Amino acid sequence: MAHPFDPTQHRLVPTQRWFEDFALGERFVIPSRTMTPAIFLAFQAASGDNHPIHYDIEYCRAHGFPNMLAHGYQVAIQTAAGAGLFPHMVEDSLKAFLEQSSRFLAPVFAGDTVYPALEVDELTPGRTTGVVGLRSTVHNQRAELVLDGRHRYLLRKRPA
Question: Which fold has domain 16-156?
Fold first, then answer.
């Protein structure tokens, strides 16, 4: 027997989470990605950045780099929470994306594979909401930390 379709129940993550449902140290892995030339071109098209260090392999080699150097923002966007499960868990509780910061610790070149993750490192409760802070990290295929940063989100507390 077929069940009637309810679009409100069509969710990637079936259990809604609220501010109180998160714990320090909880980790959200984002799928890995190899930084292909197509990704470099897509970023160039979206950002308008046209510096040859990011798009001209001969320029890069002439300046001592083995390949095209990924733009910092191109690496930072790999930590976009929407690429993982976190935003699907907070569909009803998310009020705002408050801030993002990044420190770039090592270069990422075309051909590198990156492994982004988010980890809860802050839980600051308010009266009806709370701030969930997430440490953002990106490692490369050599297990080197290439980006260390933070995201902060404002979430609703569980309704009474």
Answer: Thiol Ester Dehydrase; Chain A (3.10.129)
